[in-house]
Amino acid sequence: MSVLLELQSVTKTFSIGGFFDRSKLQAVKGATFALDDTRPEIFTIVGESGSGKTTIARMILGNETPTTGTIRFMGEDVSQLRSRRRRLAFMARVQPIFQNPFEAFNPLTTLDYYLYSTARRFLGVRGAAADEALDKALNHVGLSLAEVKGRYSHELSGGQLQRIAVARALIPGPKLIVADEPVSMVDASLRMSIVNLFRTLRDDLGVSIIYITHDLATAYYISDRVIIMHKGDVIEAGEARAVLDNPQQAYSLALKNAVLPPDPTAARLALERRRSAVSAV
Ligand SMILES: Nc1ncnc2c1ncn2[C@@H]1O[C@H](COP(=O)(O)OP(=O)(O)OP(=O)(O)O)[C@@H](O)[C@H]1O
């Protein structure tokens, strides 16, 4: 396997409290997993609030340094990217998408400004070449430059803004997108269209997605693999259907029972079984 991203026994400990009551909080207690470069996938990190998901995302993006353990992206230790050039090359390859699209875009700045800045920073293009790069990225999310140019964030819905955030992330040509709760601020009716977009990016562009969520319904629907986190520990890991259909830990079972909708296929089969049992009597 050619490794895209590898976390080895990654921990993160924060010092919390004031001068007199200082204590340690272990936000991540030893995460180990790898993504294969040749097999783009949607790798989902599930867990309730405070389980350590965002801390893992921040470490993968290089915004936080692991206390112990290593994170390698395409063989390079993410915490050792010292020069500006190497850091920029890494950022082009690993792009974030954040939870709140309304916060990501300043209401007084046109949305295309963010897209042009990204094109200038990572691709070094302006003018017609930038227009082309923007239009291409926007087309991947079902929009066009003509639709977006000159518009402000308050003119669009959360779902449309999140699409633009995805388009912005696509401009540098990333290999990996780290999406931290990307649909939790989006209207429930639009959530599936955003997560479906991740599938398209995986299949059409070969981009891997780290999808961070506390929403098991969308996790079940789109993930290839999943890890479940609880108080900083990875308590389950594996193929998404296997893990979510048959959780081994009491905590994951409780999580599943609390939120997973009934599987329509299983429900139909159960109904058919019941019907044939009745007609056999
Ligand atoms: N910079 C920090 N300093 C101190 N403690 C922190 C810091 N960042 C996170 N924590 C703590 O680490 C733990 C894990 O937080 P984290 O944000 O990673 O969880 P999460 O699963 O992403 O939760 P949420 O969905 O609420 O964002 C929490 O107890 C949080 O308060």
Automatic annotation (TrEMBL):
SUPFAM superfamilies registered for this protein in UniProt: P-loop containing nucleoside triphosphate hydrolases
Domain of life: Bacteria
Record's keyword terms, sorted: ATP-binding, Nucleotide-binding
Domain ABC transporter residue range list: 5-256
Keyword Methyltransferase: no
Signal peptide span: none
InterPro entries listed in its UniProt record: AAA+_ATPase, ABC_transporter-like_ATP-bd, ABC_transporter-like_CS, P-loop_NTPase
Pfam family, one: ABC_tran
SMART domains in UniProt: AAA
GO MF annotations, alphabetized: ATP binding; ATP hydrolysis activity
Family of the protein in this entry: Belongs to the ABC transporter superfamily.
Protein name, entry field: ABC transporter ATP-binding protein
Organism (species): Devosia geojensis
